[in-house]
Design brief:
Layout lengths: L5 E7 L6 H11 L4 E7 L5 H8 L4 E5 L5 H9 L6 E5 L3 E3 L3 H12 L3 E9 L5 E2 L9 H11 L10 E2 L7 E5 H6 L12 H11 L3 E12 L10 H53 L3
Parallel strand pairs: 1-2, 1-4, 2-3, 6-10
Antiparallel strand pairs: 4-9, 5-10, 6-7, 6-9, 8-10
Helix pairs in contact: 7-8
Amino acid sequence: MSQPSFTSLIVTYNSAGEISNLLNDLLLYMPEGKIMVIDNASSDKTADVVKQHFPQVELIRNSTNRGYAKAVNQGFAQCQAEYVLLLNPDIRINSPEVFAEMERCLKHSRQIAAAAPLQFKYDGKKYLNFTWSYTTTSAFKVYLSHLLQDKQAPTEPIRVTFLNAGCLLIRRAAFEQVGRLNEKYFLYGEEPDLFLKFRRQEFECYLLPNVGVTHYRERSLMTRPASQRLQIRFLAAWNVTDALIHGWTDILLDELLLKGIRFMNGKRQTSYKKRTFNTPG
């Protein structure tokens, strides 16, 4: 199988217990692919694990926890590949076909900005990793098939508004065009903000229901005290709500402005025709 033409970008924070498994998966399935780890000042020796056991991986150590959005943007600035694969350290790759299907999807059209596989819990149950997209018909069908445990679930790529960045292949040019991740969001909120910016620029995003990865969600979060976890969850709800409100508002204003321009153009055209008609021959 040919090597994928993308860079794998992983942001870590207190991920010493997970990062080795993911890196071993990547080296198994794409041994020649470029891998970049950006560590946000972990206190559990995550960066040391990468440096000592995976010398072929490019490691960037941040002296402070810069947050997810800033770290991703930092990595993108150093990537030259056409596509960049965002990965959470608690992801496990189930098959090399995951890479091939994501890349095949993006190569189909330059209007496709991102693609992602299904995500599964450690017990095999699905995560519906296109949260907030249930209003679209195609995504709602997947949601219903998931609820009903339908064995005839869709297998073709499904266009959705949002995807989870735990395992996400992004077209670098589209990412740069929309201004990268919004760094005002330290953690959470950056995903809905990004995908609404993609939508505003008329880019497409696809869920690939025929391939999947396992996601051991929020492992690093569970290393923090209960009080901190509660604060982080509150911040997550606030950031996501803020991103959704601002994103959809921008899209609505764009649509209203476009309708206004079309109306004024139509009015000017009608006025011009009337003047022409009334001019003596």
